[in-house]
Every structure is written in structure tokens, then in C-alpha cells.
Amino acid sequence: MTGESTASGETLDDLRRAIDRIDDSILDLLNERAALGARIAAAKRASDDAGSYGGVVLRPGREMEILRRLLRRATGLFPKAVIIRMWREMFAALISLQGPMSMAVYMPTRGAGYLELARDTYGSLTPASPWQTTAPVVRAVAEGEVSVGVLPLPRFEESNPWWPMLFFETANTPRIISRLPLCGPGPGRGDGVEAFAIGRMPVEPTGHDRSLVAIETTPDLSRGAVRTLVEGSGLPLLEIMDSHTIGEERRQYLLEISEYVAADDARIARLASDHQVGRAVVIGGYAVPFTADELAPSAPSA
């Protein structure tokens, strides 16, 4: 039956041989890409510009730019969400060639969804240390024991938030680097769970970003007053994600800004100069995850 011809005159054996040739080409190209990645890593080490934190070179912004470019090119039948998953595995494999890649993951209970998100993003074979609380995840990243940490999104007015641990400006303080899943929340692995990833590497702008800013204020400042102060500084406030009271004299707010904000942005200094604000620190940012429209099959060309 394998010699039976299709409507185009090809036999099934012909089609299978074509698939084998494509598979061989894919493998050859993966090997070529790995070799190029090794050359880039060597060049960065030689120029002292590796951006290496926790033993590996991570470029979350650059990776998202690659994925966006590929999705714009993906006009065929192959599902775009699967393309992202395949490239994420490839990124993880190539990064692991540069040094040991590992992660610490918040996992309050088995099946909570955070470990699945972590593996989908940073590789199914990347070693992961699960923790039932958030503080050990932050400490593991800060001390260089792991490359990245995966933590739950802040919940407003929770009793023991993790994000104030990032409210410092030392070299070892982790920063928020990604929002997971990269395909956006929805059914599937993780069952709608969302998370932040943290790491000790710079956040790079991609043109489609959000930033996280932590501020410390006097305790009597309302959320409405905070919004007025932030917007008055010129920062486009998207959301007040959380607030946390420290003693009787200080209150901290976590702000989500609807664009990339650098640590030395003049608007941050302007905000911190207000007499009701003690400190203002950019504690990270992320490239916006893909939307359902971006993942939908592309319309066929006319």
C-alpha cells in the first residue's frame, strides 16, 4: 500500500521521504544554531559583556522579540502556541550549553500550576527546586543558587507579600523579568494560573512592555492620591497591584506602568521627590505576553 499514489501523483513513500529530508534539515539547522550560540557566548565573555547571572546568559527581552518575529512569519497551518513552546525548549537547551541552568519555583501544593508554567517557559528538563513559600525562591535567586525564580502574581492586600524583598538597589537584588505564561492566561497547562519570573539580569525594552515600580509613602495616602502622584510624575499608571503597611509610619505600593521604565528614568526621581513619597524603585518589567488574537491562525493570503 505504501506505493499507492496520491491525487498529485506522489506515493506515500515519496511523501515520507520528503518528511525525512525535512527532519534531517531541521536537525542540521538546530546544530548550526547551537554552534552560533556558543560563538556569541564566547564573544560576550571575551568582551566582559555576558550579562551572566546564576551561571547562564539570559536575555528575556531578546527572546520575546524573536518569538514575535516568528509569529508574524507564521502564516502556515502549524499552531502558533506550539511554535512558542518549541522555541522555549530550544532556548532552554541552548542556554544550558553555556552553563548550568536551574530554577526555584513556588509550589504551595502539588498541581498548583506554577511548576508547569516554569517548565513550559524555561525547559521541561531544567532542574527545578519547589518551595511551599515565596521567600526561599527570592533568596535562592538573590544568592545565585538558581538562574530564575517563579512566583505567584501579587494579590491585593495579602498578609506576607514577596515583592517588598525586591525593594532594594543592590547588585544581587532580583528583578521581575517576565510574566507567565507567555501565551497569556487561559485553559491548558497551569489552568489559568499566572506568575512572575525573577532573575538577576537587566530588563531590556522590546517596544511592547510593562514595568513594575515600588514606592514607599506616608501611611495615610489613599490609592486615589497615589494614582494622582504617579500620573503627575508623568508615569502612565496601569494598575495598583498591591499595597503593604509597615508599622505605623510607612506604606508600600506596587505599581504596574504601561511602558518600559528604566531605573534612572527622570520620572522615578520626580515621583520620589514628593514629600509624601520616601522611595521609588523600578523592581522589574516584562514584555507583554501574547494575546489570543496574536496566537490565532493567520488569514490566508489573497
Please describe what this structure looks like.
This protein is an alpha+beta fold and 302 residues long. The protein is elongated and about 80 Å long. Helices cover 34% and strands 22% of the residues. The chain contains 8 helices and 11 strands. Helix 2 (60-73) packs antiparallel against helix 3 (80-96). The two termini are 37 Å apart. The strands form 3 sheets. It has a 5-stranded mixed beta sheet with strand order 4-3-5-7-6, with helices on both faces. The chain has helices at 12-46, 60-73, 80-96, 114-122, 135-142, 223-232, 266-272, 292-295; strands at 52-53, 56-57, 103-106, 128-131, 148-152, 175-180, 195-199, 209-217, 237-246, 250-257, 277-287. A hairpin with a 2-residue loop joins strand 1 and strand 2.
